[in-house]
Amino acid sequence: MDCLEKLQQIGIKKINQETRISVGVLENILEKRFDKIQRVWVVGFLPILERQYGVDLSWWLEEYDAYYLAHQDEKQASVYRIKELELDTQRQKYDNFQSLFQRFSIKKALISIGVLLLLVLMVFLYKFFSDSESESVGYSIVEEHGMDADGNKSDIYSQLGVNANEKEPEPLPPLPMPKEGEVMITPKGDLWFQILNPNTQDKQDKTIKDTLIMPIPEEGTLIIFGHKGFSLTYKDGSKEYDGGGPIRFIVENGRLRYIKYSDYIKKLGITQPKRDFQGSADTTLEEATDDASNEVKNEEQTEENTKTEEDSSN
């Protein structure tokens, strides 16, 4: 029996419930609508269908690649036309700016010189009158220091209206700091994160707005943070993370060590297929439950930004 016929007999609704792949994507796969589905979805969803229902869809991917290569020249031509249009538009803006600049350059220069001379004059007058006032009141200040109008000693605190016995305000208590074996998470907004034990499959989801001090989980625990920026503070230092995409860590030696997306997948025990010739990564079952296209597009950029932050902190 043909693989697609087998999947059609199972039914799109049942496959959707069992794999959580959207109905629209399933219809595009079963009807071979190559122009309606992106390759990043194909390489992620086909392995799920193969594992779930014991079918071989490698031939489907070969037909998809052949279709893509046949229409690749047409897409590149469209991109070149768009770039040429943008260059023409930018050149026209530049020419208009140059014309405007030449028209008003002399007038602008004269105005700038006049404003500069006015500022110099104002500074000179201010300094002149300030020096004059200081000379006129200097003697009376020295003469009256320590004496009141009746010739009695003058208390500097009474002159200022301050009680000499008044205590200074007590300093604010210091901010709490994490102890050994703890980590302080300071979010830059509503921050979601998940703690996952790959051995027991136990997981905890949290969303915080304020600073949180928590015990560091046991060795090998995986922690994934959402898209908001945050900082991790230990007893002896802290590190900043700008966010912009999911950031993953593993607990090693009592610290949260940043790991790449590929290493995170391996720790979960999910096999990640090799990258294809376009440079996009094969997605997994975890990605299939989310918006696959946005997840894969942002992973590499987020990992690069986080690696730069780690290097600069070290």
Q: What's this, in brief?
A:
By secondary structure, the protein is an alpha+beta fold.
Key traits:
5-stranded antiparallel β-sheet; 10 helices; 314 residues; 4-stranded antiparallel β-sheet; alpha+beta
Poorly predicted residue ranges = 137-145, 274-293
> Helix count?
10
**From the helix content, strand content and strand pairing, which structural class follows?**
alpha+beta
Shape annotation: flat
| Biggest sheet architecture | 5 strands, antiparallel
Number of strands: 9
- What is the first-to-last residue Cα distance? 59 Å
Radius of gyration: 35 Å
- What share of residues are in beta strands? 5-15%
Please provide the ordered H/E string of secondary-structure elements.
HHHHHHHEEEEEEEEEHHH
Cross-sheet strand order for the largest sheet: 3-2-5-8-9
Please give the share of residues in helix.
Answer: 40-55%
Nearest-integer average pLDDT:
76
Describe the 3D structure.
With 314 residues, this protein is an alpha+beta fold. The chain has helices at residues 3-10, 12-19, 23-30, 39-53, 58-70, 72-144, 156-160, 261-267, 285-288, 292-313; strands at residues 182-187, 191-196, 203-208, 212-215, 222-225, 230-234, 237-241, 247-252, 255-259. The strands form two sheets. Strands 3-2-5-8-9 form a five-stranded antiparallel β-sheet. A hairpin with a 2-residue loop joins strand 8 (247-252) and strand 9. The protein is flat. 15% of the residues are buried. The model is unreliable at 137-145 and 274-293 (pLDDT under 50).
